[in-house]
Please model this.
Amino acid sequence: MRKKLLIVIPNLGLGGAQRAFHDHSVELQKRYDVTEAVFNLDEPNIYPSGNPLENMDVAGGGSALRKAANFAKRITRLRALKNRLQADVCVSHLEGADYVNLLSKGREKVILLIQGSKVHDRNISGPLGWLRKKVMMPALYKRADRIVTVSRDIMPEIIEAFGVDARKVLTIHNSFEVERVWAQAQEALSAEMRAVYDAAPALVTSARLAVQKNQAPLLDIFADLLRRRPAKLIFIGDGELRNELISKARALGLRVYDVWAQKPLTPDYDVYFIGLQQNPFKFIHPADLFVFPSGWEGFPLALGEAMICGAAVVTTDCPTGPREMLAPATATPAAPIRAAEWAEFGILMPMLTEADTLKTDEKVWTDTIEQLLADPAERQRLGQLARRRMEDFTHKKIFQRWSELIEEVLAI
Model:
């Protein structure tokens, strides 16, 4: 009989974790009976898998007392769901689901999937952040049967910062639908968008418009670049910093197109905010460079997908993921890099988060981008190598490792 696998995430909607959740559901269904569980359906199911979805129907938010009551209710309802389904293994995605998974543990094996750095995540801050990092994670994570990190550089955090037995911790990278992404990348742009790309070299970035993605310094870098040569900067995505980034771009004197203003799309702008796209890959494939200024990551899907598209990538050497993807044979440096590192599969760049060095770091970015835009042969070489690298992260390879892990914990 096929073993019963329950996978849990706090909420659905649009995000990298939700995309990974979908991939796990679809791929693991090939070997196990998979049921999905979510705390509530306050966000739409953007990535339906076709597998059964259980809604525990427990809201979030409210006062501290209300949050505590809901937390307890989630534990009770997940425990009841595990018993009803007779789950053999429960895999949780995202921290909120991890706690509930561990505290509802019964006979089933528990696996946590850690999709981002805990130490470097600036959203884990204040008194609640201290409680999470100093109390809850150290106390609860030890109870897991296994903890999977999507990046090798998250493993030391789990072992050293939270005291988890190293034998319980392993890395399985995120996986990518390499063939699908490449096929979608071949789709033609509209005539209006093609005219933008034809007007000047195009830099593209794709990510949520949010603090983690750190796009604001990219606007300063681009404004400096425009003083040296023509170029276009295209933002794919949306998020809570949309208005702030558009305002900053205009304050820098940049001509801004934003799709929400419903003005005609022409080549007359410098910066293009084109919003969420059903097929972002067709915008990345013809770009001259893919630029990725994140402050921290896990194992970034957007960066990997740009590499599949054959883009030459320029990314911060942020914790965690980009170095593993672009320079897998190198160790994480003891101190942040301050110069461009021409790695095996792309360019690793200084972080753009330190006020004391920001102007110098931005100049390194501008100089490097200018150098690459003047060297089409090098961009082509890097794009071809990037595509080749992503063959290491196909669904087939990654989910073979997941199946081996599940069989291992079932045998404990």
Remarks:
- The chain has a mean pLDDT of 96.
